[in-house]
Amino acid sequence: MAEAKAQAATEACQLLPRDQVNGAPLTTTISYDNQAVIKTQGFDIALNWFGELEELVGLPGRLSASVQATVLDYYKTKTSPALYDPEIDWAGSLGPNLAGTNGGAYDYRLFSNLTYMKDNWSVGLRWRYLPGVYTAGYAQQQAIKANNAAVKAGARGITLGYVPTTEIETGDYSVWDLNFNWTINETISLRGGVNNLLDTSPEWVGPSRGYAPGTTLSGVCSGLGSPPGCQNPAAFSLQGVGTVNGGYYDVLGRRFFLGVKANF
Prior knowledge:
11% of the residues lie in helices and 33% in strands. The protein is mostly beta strands and 264 residues long.
């Protein structure tokens, strides 16, 4: 009769062999296993136009225009294969907030320029636009909701608990900048402009309604249809104004710049 040999249950356990007589650890096999996942998809669009106004409308000078758009379909991450770690789609939020990733997963972004040129001078107008957005924490809660709904429908996984957020979407944001260039002669040229021409205030990120006194806390989840995993808040909370994120919104306000270039 052939001798039966013990076999570790999983490939990971097989990397940690032990003596089959006394159980002493033997040589460990070290290998790397990338268990995190990042999936993203989107596209960029760029349109550029240049024309002589004399030919178009009978006016002097030249005009150029450009529009650039970045559109994000999805930006999904999963940091481990664990059932309690749902896949998160960060699109429409300021996430991801994971090490090695870049935040600011807006659904789309727009960047445009319009420049008028005549002889030795030009003036341009630039427009930067960001649509409404949520915080990374909001995106994480949406992932939990999607996970719980899938588990309820029969998918493999576990139901995760959460307290419903009252976050309000951050509004869209537009900033206009003005600039000019003037070549005075072969030696001297002048440039200048105004950043944040309309002195647009930054948007507040992550404002929330909170749970004001008088709210029936025990009925919050039932009022939302009793979604799986929903947990009623344990206490009342004030409205939140949010925070200002200087990485995406101008916190300095209107400002002017002027420069002189001299060639010798």
